[in-house]
């Protein structure tokens, strides 16, 4: 499936650049709608540390915690990082359920991964009363997390491309909790009338998506991807 998962015909998420001020971010986006931010961070130094070779050299023998790619009942599996990269990091099987698909994202050991995260430049905006927490992930093409929601946050692509689907809190999407995002895109998405389709866009390296509190979202990696999110809790 590498390179064959399609991008959306057009991005329907609003974009903003480095001219966006903090006050405008709070006024226009923080509590109301998602936005893609371009040029607000420079993570070229962090990206240089996230190549396959550099990550294997730094973290190969350390265990990483994988989660199943379903919505409600996450099963956890611990494997050495090198085993994940060399044997489990592969394109999504379209016939495989999310509850049987293992995904590396979010359960990071900050003692081991902390020195890497110290090199990451987070987005410059915050929500008052929150503090940031990082979640780092690597995943194969066609993989992703199906629809779910939580508190507000940012997500940045370091390598690859990542397609996002978003619905506001009052518009629950139709999905099966054990269905992968790829299966949903292939089977459910084509049946949706235009008015029922989500906001969607594809993020490329250096772009940051902000999503507000309780917005439904699902992700789909179009390539083997490296990404990091900043959750505001």
UniProtKB/TrEMBL annotation:
Gene3D superfamilies: Cupin. Transmembrane segments: none annotated. Pfam families: Cupin_8 (PF13621). It comes from the Eukaryota. GO terms for molecular function: cis-regulatory region sequence-specific DNA binding. GO terms for cellular component: nucleus. Residues 99-233 form the JmjC domain. PANTHER family: ARGININE DEMETHYLASE AND LYSYL-HYDROXYLASE JMJD, JMJC DOMAIN-CONTAINING PROTEIN 8. This is JMJD8 protein. It comes from Hylia prasina (green hylia). The gene is Jmjd8.
């Amino acid at each position: 499936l590498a390179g064959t998962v399609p991008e959306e015909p057009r991005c329907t998420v609003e974009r903003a650049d480095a001219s966006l001020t903090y006050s405008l971010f709070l006024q226009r986006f923080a509590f109301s709608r998602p936005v893609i931010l371009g040029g607000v961070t420079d993570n070229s130094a962090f990206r240089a540390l996230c190549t396959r070779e550099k990550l294997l050299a730094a973290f190969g023998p350390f265990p990483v915690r994988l989660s199943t790619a379903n919505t409600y009942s996450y099963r956890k599996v611990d494997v050495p990082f090198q085993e994940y990269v060399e044997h489990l990091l592969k394109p999504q099987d379209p016939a495989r359920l999310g509850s049987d698909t293992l995904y590396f994202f979010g359960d990071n050991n900050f003692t081991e991964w902390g020195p890497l995260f110290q090199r990451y430049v987070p987005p410059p905006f915050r929500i008052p009363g929150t503090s940031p927490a990082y979640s780092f992930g690597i995943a194969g093409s066609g993989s992703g997390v199906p629809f779910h929601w939580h508190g507000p946050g940012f997500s940045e692509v370091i390598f690859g491309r990542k397609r996002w689907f978003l619905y506001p809190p009052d518009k629950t999407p139709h999905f099966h909790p054990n269905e992968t995002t790829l299966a949903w895109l292939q089977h459910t998405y084509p049946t949706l009338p235009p008015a029922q389709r989500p906001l969607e866009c594809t993020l490329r390296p250096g772009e940051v998506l902000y999503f507000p509190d309780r917005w439904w979202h699902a992700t789909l990696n179009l390539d083997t991807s490296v990404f990091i999110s900043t959750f505001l809790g």
